[in-house]
Write a structure and sequence with these properties.
Length: 371
């Protein structure tokens, strides 16, 4: 019997709906997953079989073919476990499948049937509403994040039993409700470190206020202990508050990177990122074999602080040139290209070099330390 369920894949900070087609036919026991799955997706059949057996559901001992369409898009990660498991149960007659096409289903299964959180719940929910789905079923830990999207029923579940009971009409799930504007305004200025805590330092405070007003990049030069890092950490608190659009855009990036906790629904304060000077080029600007946002994208609409600037690798600083100009970074691979926004305020700090005292030109000193 052929059954379809629906999941989603995240590319950049946008989502693409993935159709999971499962067909169970007579024949020798065999599992086939097609449609460009990666290793994590291929391993899902072992997790699904263990989860079903643990919860007293039957894993069909027949030929099971799973197709993930569109087949020319690579499917990555373990978030399709629940989507595939639901389709297998429906195809084998253990779930009523009349309502399946109305819901987007995502989640990683543990061997006991419980669900682990996924990445990118917010962009997936936005795409689900755009395509007219009635609801979105996902792990409980991601429910508040996805519930930011209005006009979409978001159900957070803890175990596969709840999903089966929901579709069979045996249990009722309570939709997660988040008032987006209340969530946005209640912690709009809730910074851990505030600029008003700084005493003295009038000249540098005035300079940072001017820089914050115009969105200018800043470099702080002074001896250790002068307060460079302390001032930089408090700079986001005097930047203009995030707009709702900026908050949603920032939250999407942190959602894709898996940086949101279960209690967070929105990123409502300006991000502050301070990577260590040993950071690699890829970790700074983003990318990798499975592209992820880098530090410059996680600092989008906020502050990127580079402490001890001359200690950073020259190559890492060079790759920041174009994102600083274009306010976005493009990650290109042979078969696809993804864009991440990276509009941030760059703040750097460094100690004065000994050669300044010996009448050497400061620029030559900086270039010498970079090399």
């Amino acid at each position: 019997m052929l059954v379809k369920t629906f999941g989603s894949a995240v590319y950049g900070i946008e989502a693409i709906t993935i159709t999971i087609e499962v067909n169970i036919s007579p024949g020798k026991l065999a599992y086939f997953i097609v449609g460009l799955p990666d290793n994590a997706v291929r391993e899902s059949m072992q997790r699904i079989e263990a989860a079903l057996q643990t919860n007293n559901y039957r894993m069909p001992r027949q030929r099971i073919v799973v197709n993930m369409a569109p087949a020319d898009i690579r499917k990555e990660g373990s978030a399709y476990d629940l989507t595939i498991a639901t389709a297998i149960l429906a195809s084998s007659g253990q779930i009523e499948n009349e309502e399946l096409e109305k819901y987007l289903i995502m989640g990683e299964l543990s061997l006991d049937g419980s669900l682990q959180p996924i990445k990118g719940a917010l962009p997936i929910a936005i795409q689900a509403r755009k395509e007219g789905y009635k609801g979105f079923i996902l792990p409980k830990q991601n429910a508040r994040e996805a519930a930011i999207v209005n006009e979409l029923e978001v159900y957070g579940v803890e175990n596969i039993k709840e999903v089966v009971g929901f579709f069979n009409g045996e249990t009722q799930l309570t939709a997660e409700v988040v008032n987006t504007r209340d969530e946005f305004y209640k912690s709009l200025t809730a910074y851990d470190s505030d600029f008003s805590e700084v005493r003295g330092q009038e000249n540098i405070k005035r300079a940072l206020e001017i820089a914050a007003a115009g969105g200018h990049n800043v470099i702080l030069i002074g001896p250790p202990g002068a307060g460079k890092t302390m001032l930089a950490r408090r700079l986001p608190s005097i930047l203009p508050p995030l707009s709702l659009y900026e908050s949603l855009e920032t939250t999407k990036i942190h959602s894709v990177a898996g940086k949101l906790s279960a209690a967070d629904a929105l990123v409502t304060t300006r991000p502050f990122r301070s990577p260590h000077h040993t950071i690699s080029d890829v970790a700074l600007v983003g990318g990798g074999s499975n592209p992820q946002p880098g530090e410059i994208s996680l600092a989008h609409n906020g502050v990127l602080f580079l402490d001890e600037l001359p200690e950073f690798k020259r190559s890492a600083l060079e790759v920041m040139r174009q994102p600083l100009e274009e306010r976005r970074v493009t990650i290109s691979r042979a078969k696809f290209t993804v864009d991440y926004p990276s509009s941030f305020m760059l703040v750097a700090s460094m100690n004065p070099c000994w050669c300044v005292e010996h009448s050497f030109h400061f620029r030559k000193c900086w270039e010498h330390r970079l090399n």
